[in-house]
Amino acid sequence: MKYKKVTLENIEEFAIPLSTHILKWKFELENEQELYKEFEDQIIPLNPEASKFLYQFQNSQKILDLEVSQYFEKEESIIVKEDSDKEVKKWLYKRGIKFDTKVFWLESETHAFVLTWKMVIKFWESIFFASDEIIWDKTLNWVLGYHHERAFYFSKDRIYDTNTESKEIAKTNEILKDFKSKVSQINSNSKYTSNPFRS
After folding, report:
1. Are 94 and 189 spatial neighbours (Cβ–Cβ below 8 Å)?
2. For the chain, how far is it from start to end, CA to CA, in angstroms?
């Protein structure tokens, strides 16, 4: 079988069963070790290869971080208080993202998920559990961040063009490569085999 490269478009093809995943407890019924069967098609754990791809992609994008307000036109936030489940769910719902929107959640370098936005709302307390987390989708036009000190930040309407920067980085790398090549040619063609200014 030919090797298939992971992309944001085909990443769901690299799924593994939720029932065998180390983080399945986040999606279990309260006080029971039983998964919400009705939601399994909306909770897609990724295999280590796809998780690593997502980890590398997320870390290559400046806008996929907790501190991203400078890259977006708008930012809203909410402090999570005790017993504020309904308030937080309502706030997440009001972000205007469709329930069936597929989003990415990277728990670690080897554990990542594709979820629907509906699942983010439903299981927010389990997903955002005592650690810094971010949720985003392939449009890269918004980021939901959660700070471990119990605050959500929602940034939207990107003003930073990731495609432009990627092209600029590629162009810079090409210039550096060309420069190194020319320096090598100069050195190999030089009549001096050692520093002519040294005696």
Report:
1. no
2. 63
Highest mean pLDDT range out of 9-18, 157-166, 173-182? 9-18
Contact between 28 and 86 under an 8 Å Cβ cutoff? The reply is no
66-70, 114-118, 189-193, range with greatest mean pLDDT: 114-118
Write the DSSP assignment of 22-80 as a string of letters: TTGGGGBPTTSS-B-GGGGGGEEEBPHHHHHHHHHHHHH-TTSSS--GGGEEEEEEEE-
Please, which residues have CB within 8 angstroms of residue 68's CB and are 6 or more apart in sequence? 62, 143, 145, 155
> Which strands, in side-by-side order, build the sheet including 111-116?
43-45, 111-116, 102-108, 133-136, 142-147, 151-158, 72-79
Fill in the DSSP letter of residue 157: E
pTM over 0.85: no
Closest among 61, 58, 49 to 111, alpha carbons compared: 49
